[in-house]
Amino acid sequence: MMPAMAFISMILQIMSGMDTAFLERGIIIGLSIAAPIGPVSLLCIRRTLAEGRLSGIASGLGAATADAAFSCVAGFGLTYILNIMIGLQLLLRLMGGLYLIYLGFKLLLARPTEQTALPTKGDGLIHAYATTLILTLTNPMTILSFAAFFAGLGLGGARNGYASSGALVLGVFIGSAMWWLILSSGVGAFRQRCSQRGMRWINRISGAMIAGFGLATLIC
Q1: 134 near 103, Cβ under 8 Å?
Q2: What is the C-alpha separation between 147 and 85, in angstroms, rounded?
Q3: What angle do CA 83, 103, 195 make, to 5 degrees?
Q4: SS3 of 16, please?
Q5: What does 95-160 look like in DSSP terms, one character per residue?
Q6: pLDDT at res. 37
Q7: What are the C-alpha distances in Å from 217 to residues 93, 101, 138, 143?
Q8: Shortest CA distance to 49 belongs to which of 190, 183, 208?
Q9: Residue 165 pLDDT
Q10: Which of 15, 121, 184, 215 has the fewest CB atoms within 10 Å, measured from its CB?
Q11: Distance between CA atoms of residues 67 and 33, nearest Å
């Protein structure tokens, strides 16, 4: 749990010099968006168990970066980007759904003995970060969720000022990243207890669920 505690300590220092009201709201929004179980959560859990905490954290930070990008669009009132993404909704859904199905079947066929123990080197962590970043960016529902959150709370747009909007976006990133750090740290504590047989079942269950999310994305 040390990475999570160090991150939280750093965040408290940052908050002391910012508009804490908007920062705190952003953190709550980031946690609310990240916490529900979905394909990224399953991928983060599986990577933490199979490859170590760093891989899980890198995966989570990819999703947190995408959340921050979406909140930037909603928070600064960049409606033209929002409209473009809504117009590309079908294409993004197709890309995201097919990618989820690919990842799901890849996990279903994966063998624990063939997995790398700890992808602590740059390439492995960059791949973990990039895949969840792309996966989250291709989900049009995420940006619509941010738009709904910000509109419902009366946040976003030029009326709040750039400083407040910036604090809001940073808060979203912090809240989302906090969730992934806590999740990866918590799951990582059980990694040593997971046998190859257990990992095989985790691959099957997470792969089937992720592929199911992909099918649901294409159908709905």
Answers
A1: no
A2: 12
A3: 140
A4: coil
A5: HHHHHHHHHHHHHHT--GGGS-S---SHHHHHHHHHHHHHHHHT-HHHHHHHHHHHHHTT--SGGG
A6: 81
A7: 6, 10, 11, 15
A8: 190
A9: 75
A10: 121
A11: 8
CA distance linking residue 4 with residue 8, whole number of Å: 6
Return the residue matching tokens 């940073």: 170
137-168 in b/e form (b: 16+ CB < 10 A) is bbbbebbbbbbebbeeeebbbeebeeebbbbb
Amino acid identity, position 87: G
Residue with tokens 């168990």: 49
Which is nearest to 217 in space by CA: 96, 131, 108, 40? 96
* E strand or H helix that includes residue 161: none
CA–CA separation, 35 and 38 (whole Å):
9
The amino acid at 138? T
* Residue written as token pair 């990618």: 99
Helices (H) and strands (E) in the chain, counts: 10, 0
Residue with tokens 């909704």: 89
Token code pair at residue 160: 């709040």
Along the 220 residues of the chain, how does pLDDT read in single tens digits?
545 556 555 555 555 555 577 788 888 888 888 888 888 889 899 888 888 888 889 999 999 999 888 888 776 766 667 667 767 777 878 888 888 898 888 888 877 654 444 444 556 888 889 999 988 888 767 777 776 776 666 655 555 566 777 788 888 899 999 999 999 888 888 777 777 778 888 888 888 998 888 888 888 6
Q: Which two tokens stand for residue 10?
A: 């750093």
